[in-house]
Amino acid sequence: MEATDIGDDLETVLITEEQISERLSEMAAQIDRDYVGKEILLVGVLRGAVMVMADLSRKIHSPLEMDWMAVSSYGAGTKSSGVVRILKDLDSDIQGRHVLIVEDIIDSGLTLSWLYANLTQRGAASVKIATLLRKPDAAKVHVDVSYVGFDIPNEFVVGYGLDYAGRYRHLSSVGTLAPHVYGG
Ligand code: IMP
Ligand code: MG
């Protein structure tokens, strides 16, 4: 759906569909340059990264496979609980594989620093991270992110896979919600 379908629940469109597409093309080109002669295992983090995975992967020319993990660090609200649980583990053995984690957003960085350590311990040949969005707080936790789409302000955003209480994932752009949506 488009921003106009949401009406006044949406405050601003931060990043348009076209901007996302252009940036993902640049990231894919960089990934192709970095993984010459290597086969990539893209690990998407469900559910938010579904759109990034679908669009980024189709712009990559190198051979790759996809796998998925589901972890939970948030409840239904807008703040990280700091507790990471595996809800769905990988189907593949990643021993010796070149793993590229694909995320929608890094906020506190807690989820990714935990995931990075977890996948590294399983004997991957390499583990790198690609994220469409990154918020300023991510700098507080040491996570080495190789590919970042956009650095955004510390606001809660929805769209392009990102939800608020399960909604707005299918918005084509990324935007901020109007305060009355939180207030109820
Ligand atoms: P972190 O552990 O704080 O970095 O949180 C990462 C996860 O929280 C992301 O993968 C998202 O699922 C969710 N998240 C963080 N910020 C936002 C946001 O602004 N909108 C929607 N989901 C978010
Ligand atoms: Mg996520």
Helix content: 25-40%
Q: How much is the average pLDDT?
A: 92
Structural class: alpha/beta
Report how far the terminal alpha carbons are from each other.
22 Å
> Can you tell me the overall shape?
globular
pLDDT < 50 runs, ≥5 residues:
none
Number of helices: 5
Give the bound compounds. Answer: inosinic acid, magnesium ion
Structural Rg: 16 Å
Task: Going across the biggest sheet, name each strand in turn.
Answer: 4-3-2-5-6-7
User: What is the β-strand count?
Assistant: 9
Order of helices and strands: HEHEHEEEHEEEEH
Query: What portion of the residues fall into strands of 2 or more residues?
Result: 25-35%
Strand count, sense and barrel status of the largest sheet are:
6 strands, mixed
Task: Describe this structure as you would to a colleague.
The chain has 184 residues and is an alpha/beta fold. It has helices at 3-6, 17-34, 50-57, 110-121, 179-183; strands at residues 10-15, 40-46, 64-74, 80-88, 98-106, 126-134, 147-151, 157-158, 174-177. The strands form 2 sheets. The chain has a 6-stranded mixed sheet, sandwiched between helices. Strand 2, helix 3 (50-57) and strand 3 form a beta-alpha-beta unit. Helix 2 (17-34) crosses helix 3. The chain is globular. It starts with a helix and ends with a helix. The chain binds inosinic acid and magnesium ion (MG). Residues 45, 48-49, 103-104 line the site of magnesium ion. Inosinic acid (IMP) binds at residues 45, 48, 73-74, 80, 103-112, 156-158, 162.
